[in-house]
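Dear colleagues,

As part of the handover before I leave the project, I'm documenting each prediction I ran so the next person doesn't have to rerun anything. This entry is a single chain, and its sequence is reproduced below.
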Amino acid sequence: MICAALTQAKELRFDPLAKTLGMSPPTLSKHVGQLHEAGYVATRPDHRDSRRQWINLTPVGREAYEGHIAALRLLMPE
């Protein structure tokens, strides 16, 4: 769900993303951390408020997500 949301925007701020996905901030933080370790997302602090951060999908993450969606489409009957 995180990657799907991030494909719709250049980057999203952490708090609104958590709210949109219906995730608690700790849960989103855990998942974003795992995606960051895999190289799928990048984060940066908000220059106006260092307690907030922005998240974006990396080119590697976008390619992995698109591959995942393509694989799912192959499983769907026509």
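The mean pLDDT is 94. Residues 44 and 54 are 5 Å apart (CA to CA).

All the best with the project,
I.
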